[in-house]
Amino acid sequence: MAESDPIKKQNDNLSIRRDRNFQTLMSALFCVYLLTYSALNLFLAHRFYAIALFAFFLLFTADLVIFRKPKLRKRRSFILVAACAVISVYSFWNGGSGESGYIWAFVFAPLTFYLLGKRLGLIYNLLLLFAETTLFFLARAGVTGHAFRPGTLLILLTALVFLVIFLYGYEYIQEQNRTAVEQKTKQLLALNEDLMHLAHVDFLTELLNRRKIIGALREEIDRYRRYQTPVSVILLDVDHFKSFNDTYGHPFGDEVLRLIARTLKSAARETDRVGRCGGEEFLIVLPSTTASDAMKLAERARLRLRDISLHPKDGVDVTVTASFAVAQAGEGENDSELFARVDRALYQSKNAGRDRVTMAE
Questions:
Q1: Which of 87, 286, 293, 304 suits a disulfide with 232, CB 3.0-4.6 Å?
Q2: Rounded Cα distance, 65 and 335, in Å
Q3: pLDDT bucket at 3, cuts 50 / 70 / 90
Q4: Does residue 9 carry a pLDDT above 70?
Q5: Burial track 44-56 (b if 16+ CB lie within 10 A, e otherwise)
Q6: What architecture is domain 210-359?
Q7: Ranges of each domain in the chain
Q8: Average pLDDT value over all residues in the chain
């Protein structure tokens, strides 16, 4: 739906800005943390761990400087997650300061769910849990890595599993809420579109209603005043329309109006605006059109109407005609004055015998 595109684009832009701001904040916090703990480990003579943390500090600093463009948002998300995963695994293997290496797993979990969503967040956390569980048993077997106390794995597994379940459930609920909001927004947009249609379109003929067609006339006159581009109008009234209703009933009269509407739209150009002023009266607004060109279009529409034969009942043929009037906007003339002038010309067509086109004086 065309009306929904601006809303969707606005929501997408808000989401992009939110994610970019969060990523920037996380990178800044990681920079502070990594630089602080790198210095602390260097002070404690854990040089290799200090160098590793400082290397990650440089990576997150580069993220802040290089990957801030919106088009790099997804790449930036994966870089942040990958860097955090490497830090988590390395810290767990190394043991960290005071056996705090497993703490990074609790940073990794919410970060992945927020940046990558519930499906990838769950997959990445299961992979991290598997990697750290493997490292734990390798270390306990004396193969490699820091050997944590036996209870550490149980604490890590229990806390991390509950955290992942909570985050997955939270993201699932958020996704459901977003879907519900999007559906409600679509319903409201559809309702708004219907209301706009009712406000601007005549329900019987599907042409512009009086308010909208007069508004279109005002717009074209304003354009004429600014750019001196000519604008003309055609006003027409169906001949003897009351007799159609009285003789054949209102449903037939409605069908006549719908037929005239279709004929006028087919005769008009794409840039022309066709509307129903009320009853059996119609108005066509012709942008960038002189009176002589408007006369040609009015004559074409009049002849098309005469060629149509209706059959309200067996053995009865009815021909529809209409009286037309044409006027071009004059210097300093407003929409009311132009409409009054073309309306007087329409009465001249009626008084002269109907089924004709009259040029307004």
A1: 286
A2: 59
A3: very low
A4: no
A5: eebeebbebbbeb
A6: 2-Layer Sandwich (3.30)
A7: 4-188, 210-359
A8: 83
